[in-house]
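Subject — a protein and its fold

Tokens — whole-number codes for backbone shape
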Amino acid sequence: MLRSNAHREAVPARWHALRPLRSITIAITTAITTASATALAALALPLPAQAGSLSGTAAYRERIALPPDAVFEAVLIDAAIADAPARELGRVLLHPAGQPPFRFTIPYRDGDVTPAGRYAVGATVRQGERLLFTTDTFTPVLRGGPNQPLSLKLVAAGTGRPPLTSFPLGRLPASWRGDLAFAGGTSRWQVDLSADGSFQLRQTFLNRPAPNRFDDIGRWRIEPGSNRLVLRGGREAPVFFQPLEGGAALAKLDLQGEPIRSRQPDRLQRLATPQPIDPRLHLVGMFRYLADAATIRLCATGARLPVAMEADYRRLERAYLKAQPAERRGQPLLVNLEGLITNRPSAEPGQPPQRTLVVERFVGVHSGRDCPEPNTSANASAARTAATG
């Protein structure tokens, strides 16, 4: 009995001796379990997005100093998706641009880059709405391997160089045409875009008797981010299109610049070669006659054209000379007229035909006035005001 009691007393003694060791084991097991759970939880958390970047320089050959308000812009796009606007992956603005060479870095998210993508970088230099310089191609990038520094070549806009590229429109100049439905029938649209930022537009109502054709001219731009094409001319409101497939087509948008929800055709297709219209419309511009040569700077586009000495030109010339004091002869005056912009032989031998203004009906001369601000509805209202005196 005494042995039994001693045995019973000895067991708790050994148990108490082992309790510290058991506590250590439990603590270690708990720590391992907690660490494993923490590690698994960490694996389950979303990882931060990895960021990449493309760096480089851009420059042009001309020895031209940029104005202080010039803006440099470089953009990274993916044009691999058919029948859809190119997807913008990154953009950088240098405002003010300063002077070349322009050093830039375009950030992008690695998750946006896939093997199926077709990536390219292009750049422009603008002063307000005016395109000064642009890349004439989009440089392919992100084709595997490390990102190499880019060296982009900019060319001057509207200087007689080969057709320029203004992504997402493709190479310019270019023409697009298509038949679109409206409440009263079908209208045929044609849009001509030039690399200098000017456009020509013709809308013909096919089910109406003549005059059923309305022409317009003005300035175009691509909106950053949305890549919408915006045309601002003599209409009260801008006209919106969405470039598709790298400029193969233009989708007509509504008055607010949103997609048209309809099963009716909404596309203008790019023509194989540019076929610019000869717009016939009311025009306002700064006319000048000097040394037996007549020119006009159109308010809608800023283009300077020779004026043909035919049709109603003589009335314009006489009114201009009458409105000018003798000591100010040769200074530009604001005029408005109905005219035709078309090709005429160049005055310089051996040169190709050039765009020329034909005055079909002279309306008036307006001393002491200049062109209204471009690309605003005030332009259209000013033209109507001038037309009525």
Q: What stands out?
A: DSSP finds three helices and 23 strands in the chain. The longest strand covers residues 354-366. Confidence is low (pLDDT under 50) at residues 1-49, 159-165, 375-389. The two ends are 134 Å apart (CA to CA).
